[in-house]
From TrEMBL:
Originating species: Punica granatum
One annotated GO biological process: monocarboxylic acid metabolic process
GO molecular function term, any single one: catalytic activity
Coiled coil: none
Ranges of residues in domain MOSC: 128-291
Protein name: Mitochondrial amidoxime-reducing component 1-like
Signal peptide bounds: none
Gene name linked to the record: LOC116205450
Annotated PANTHER family: MITOCHONDRIAL AMIDOXIME REDUCING COMPONENT 1, MOLYBDOPTERIN COFACTOR SULFURASE MOSC
Length: 302
């Protein structure tokens, strides 16, 4: 055993606040409910904290039962959103919206389910510009990940891969170098593990959590988002400036091709099919066993 799961995080709406849960059902696209919704502009383009840091202050809440394996929403099941200066918004979990075309996030475009005028007005008022809330339409849409790293795998509105794992040791090592320590929410992982050495996760190419096998497919290249304080929505220069000093490709892969990236965390995909499997859930406290690993970060895929 290399570590144990210490926290699980789900981000129902891309770039909005996360939810910490003691257990989370697994799906091929990530933890259930993760990045299932997206805020878009009048042209259907995704809003993220990179351009709308106020999204960090939108707090989602799901019913407690939503993190049970086989829970099915009822007519009275809602995703409830709060934000500074706004009345709570209730978004039905059981009533799919109308299909809308021309939704795009990064390289992908397709149709999605529009959550209606009340949600559109709420986000438009909050952001001060025309906005709509849409939900991924997994009945008709597929968003594949980069086939170079994980052929056959898919996500909803996540940036790249279904799961992001970070160790507490890595965060602690970073915070020792910072004048002002940062919390893990700057990095928006799905799985936080404890009990391993800092940056051990760089080396993990195959791990087992509970009875499920995950492949570590690519170190996570970080964007501007870790510089945004998730409590205030205000951006600074840290922790990215410090990370550049020891977590850049120049530092980790001095003889490899330089891409000008800085890395923190390991992207994962679920190796097994979940079809017909009972107990499709991982929990805080689950052991993390390393099945395969590389010997140095220079050998890790980026």
């Amino acid at each position: 055993m290399a570590a144990t799961v210490s926290s699980l995080f789900i981000y129902p709406i891309k770039s909005c606040r996360g939810i910490s849960a003691p257990a989370a059902p697994l799906t091929p696209t990530g933890l259930r409910w993760d990045r299932q919704w997206l805020v878009v502009n009048s042209k259907g383009r995704a809003y993220t904290q990179r351009v709308e840091p106020k999204l960090a202050l939108v707090v989602p809440e799901l019913p407690n039962d939503a993190f049970s394996e086989d829970w099915v929403p009822s007519a009275n099941s809602y995703l409830v959103l709060t934000a500074p200066g706004m009345s709570p918004l209730k978004v039905s979990l059981s009533q799919p919206g109308q299909i809308t075309e021309g939704v795009s996030v990064w390289e992908w475009s397709g149709s999605a389910l529009d959550e209606g005028e009340e949600a559109a007005k709420w986000f438009s008022d909050y952001l001060g510009k025309p906005s709509r809330l849409v939900r991924f339409n997994d009945d008709s849409q597929t968003r594949p990940v980069d086939a170079k790293y994980a052929p056959g795998h898919k996500v909803m509105f996540s940036d790249e891969y279904p799961f992001l794992l970070i160790s507490q040791g890595s965060l602690d090592a970073l915070n020792e170098l910072l004048k002002e320590p940062v919390p893990i929410n700057r990095f928006r992982p799905n799985i936080l593990v404890n009990g391993c050495k800092p940056f051990s996760e760089d080396l993990w190419t195959e791990i087992k959590i509970n009875k499920f096998t995950f492949s570590g497919v690519k170190l996570c290249a970080r964007c501007k988002l870790p510089t945004i304080n998730q409590e205030t929505g205000i951006a600074g220069s840290e922790p990215t400036e410090t990370l550049k000093t020891f977590r850049s490709d120049k530092a980790l892969r001095p003889t490899g091709k330089q891409q000008g990236q800085t890395y923190f965390g390991q992207n994962l995909v679920l190796k097994e099919s979940l079809a017909g499997v009972k107990g499709k859930i991982i929990k805080v406290g689950d052991p993390v066993n390393v099945l395969k690993m590389v010997s140095s970060p220079a050998e890790a895929a980026v």
